[in-house]
Amino acid sequence: MSTIPPELGIHHSSLRDGGDGLRASATELGTRIEALATSIEALGPLGGADDISALIGEAYEAIHHAAFESLQTALDALAQDGNTLDAMRVTFRVQERSTEQSIDSLRA
């Protein structure tokens, strides 16, 4: 029997579903970003044979690399947030059980 009123309890299923959702979103976005990167690479190199075009092409490559690296970092953080929600759920469940046992022992 739970001694913690429902309005004060942790909604474990919400934490689990939230964690699963964040990880699934990160995976889905990662798949779409990979598809975008593949499409961009299929266009071939940017720029021409002259010096100015070569500089523009190099700048484009640097920006492209930085943007996709930033997106990957964001996706990794999103997935980690999902893992954190799972860890919170487990920690809260353990603490709830410990609290309930402590309260029950005081009642006995």
Number of strands: 0
Q: Supply the helix-strand structural class.
A: mainly alpha
Terminal Cα span: 14 Å
Q: What is the total domain count?
A: 1
The radius of gyration computed from the alpha-carbon positions, rounded to a whole number of angstroms, is 24 Å
Order of helices and strands: HH
What does this structure look like?
This is PE domain-containing protein. Residues 1-23 are annotated as: Disordered. With 108 residues, the chain is mainly α. It has one domain (13-99). It contains two helices and no strands. It has helices at residues 12-42, 51-107. Helix 1 packs antiparallel against helix 2. The mean pLDDT is 90.
List the helices and strands and how they pair.
Elements lengths: L11 H31 L8 H57 L1
Give the key terms.
single chain, 108 residues, mainly alpha, rod-shaped
Q: What would a concise description of this structure say?
A:
It contains 2 helices and no strands.
